[in-house]
Amino acid sequence: GARPLASPAHVPRQVVVLQDPMEDPNDILHARRSREKSYVFDVAFDSSATQETVYRATTRDLVAGVISGHNATIFTYGPTGCGKTYTMLGTDGEPGVCARTLVELFQAIEDASGDTEYEVSMSYLEIYNEMIRDLLNPSLGCLQLREDAGGTVQVAGITKISAISAEEVLQVLARGNRQRTQEPTAANCASSRSHAVLQVTVRQRRRGGGLRRGRLFMIDLAGSERAAQTQNRGQRMKEGAHINRSLLALGNCIKALSHRASTKYINYRDSKLTRLLKDSLGGNSHTVMIAHISPASTAFEESRSTLAYAHRAKSIRAT
């Protein structure tokens, strides 16, 4: 019963136009102050975009960097029910960003010159209620973050699996997804209540040369909607507060990084999520955020805050 409010502008394909559902054409006082707002991004997709289109425009170019020793991070961000998990994981018929990136990664390694050895390892975890769970071995319980001698934040005791093919990684991924914390809310009957973080590490060793390491993070964030939208009570309500707290901490880091000149200190320690992503946000990392919104008029507030959040993330300048 809602009407569509958001659409990518046809020219150029980078602007998202959001109309205010409360705008009254008979309001003479505010007649000249349109509450229609435009947001500019690198690329905007409408509902007809395919998984392949989204992958090629957002993530495909990161693979070469990871193999040559850079870090890369892909986020999906937005309210519950807008398709974050679909974009990241997809279905058997329409695989998502994760599957396509891994297939391309292993293909690039196969095509690389013969005097280089590659070793690929991966871990898969979820951050739920500010606790870290290993999705490949949930019986390990709650894990802790530790900083190694080089200043890299690691999860102590997490399961790391060596992989030799994309198929193997996708099987492990499917196994991990079955362990994810999901609960029905009023916004989505199979809502992911946790942030899922897939980390793929590629080590490259040339004969007679040094070792290079590139890390690829693929992150399916939990839904960013307001509590009123989910009609949550009790445990779900507490859960939502933890989700929103970690997303707020992420937002604060993004804000501080995008106004680097005026901010000396960036508070990564506010949540487990931001501590884990310290190198991905402010280090030598290529970072992509795929923001999802519902074009429905009933989701106007969520859409507006998501577009503002993503717009701010766009102004981060990594070192």
Automatic annotation (TrEMBL):
<dbReference type="InterPro" id="IPR036961">
    <property type="entry name" value="Kinesin_motor_dom_sf"/>
</dbReference>
<dbReference type="InterPro" id="IPR001752">
    <property type="entry name" value="Kinesin_motor_dom"/>
</dbReference>
<keyword id="KW-0206">Cytoskeleton</keyword>
<keyword id="KW-0547">Nucleotide-binding</keyword>
<keyword id="KW-0493">Microtubule</keyword>
<keyword id="KW-0067">ATP-binding</keyword>
<keyword id="KW-0505">Motor protein</keyword>
<protein>
    <recommendedName>
        <fullName>Kinesin-like protein</fullName>
    </recommendedName>
</protein>
<dbReference type="InterPro" id="IPR027417">
    <property type="entry name" value="P-loop_NTPase"/>
</dbReference>
<dbReference type="GO" id="GO:0005524">
    <property type="term" value="F:ATP binding"/>
</dbReference>
<feature type="domain" description="Kinesin motor">
    <location>
        <begin position="1"/>
        <end position="316"/>
    </location>
</feature>
<dbReference type="InterPro" id="IPR019821">
    <property type="entry name" value="Kinesin_motor_CS"/>
</dbReference>
<dbReference type="InterPro" id="IPR027640">
    <property type="entry name" value="Kinesin-like_fam"/>
</dbReference>
<keyword id="KW-0175">Coiled coil</keyword>
<keyword id="KW-0963">Cytoplasm</keyword>
<dbReference type="GO" id="GO:0007018">
    <property type="term" value="P:microtubule-based movement"/>
</dbReference>
<feature type="binding site">
    <location>
        <begin position="78"/>
        <end position="85"/>
    </location>
    <ligand>
        <name>ATP</name>
    </ligand>
</feature>
<dbReference type="GO" id="GO:0008017">
    <property type="term" value="F:microtubule binding"/>
</dbReference>
<dbReference type="GO" id="GO:0005874">
    <property type="term" value="C:microtubule"/>
</dbReference>
<dbReference type="Pfam" id="PF00225">
    <property type="entry name" value="Kinesin"/>
</dbReference>
<dbReference type="GO" id="GO:0003777">
    <property type="term" value="F:microtubule motor activity"/>
</dbReference>
<comment type="similarity">
    <text>Belongs to the TRAFAC class myosin-kinesin ATPase superfamily. Kinesin family.</text>
</comment>
